[in-house]
Amino acid sequence: MPPAAAEPLTPERILATTEEVLRRFGPTKATVVDVARALGVSHGSVYRHFPSKAALREAVTERWLTKSAVLLEEIASAPGGSAPSKLEAWLEALFEAKRHKAGDDPELFATYTVLLAENSGVVDEHLTELVAQLARIIAEGVAAGSLAAGDVPGAARAVFDATGRFHDPQYAADWLSPTIIPEFEAVTSLVIRGLRA
Fold it and tell me: Using one digit for the tens of pLDDT, what is the confidence trace for 135-144?
């Protein structure tokens, strides 16, 4: 019986393995050679998909951020429901996603905090996408008469900034506080009341 064909080397497989290598070695010690070794291929094979270590780290960062953005996009683009309810659900989902990332895998979260600082362009694009989702929710509420905002993009940015303590990784230590949920609910309630028409 011939040996089973090896799993093809795809960018997604490389990124998933890179995440495991980063978890094991951390961002300062993990190398492309470590990733290649974990995949059972030469480092040249990895470089065929990602031209440099920086490009690989950037792609891993983008993959990690995209997971949250996809979930939030589902909320932002869901048909029906009031804009205030959708806004509350979106803010809650963002907070929960960040809390789970920090709490479920603190080593990898710490690694990504380092990678986020390295890849400011990827982070900027991600933040722009999130604020755009908020703007769509607010615009939907303005059109329906349930929210009021003269400057929808400005209001979206203000909401994002006002809730920063609940999604910015620099506040991750706060997310362990026993009072963080009521604090989140109080801020969210205040923000939504401030936008109501």
Answer: 999 999 999 9
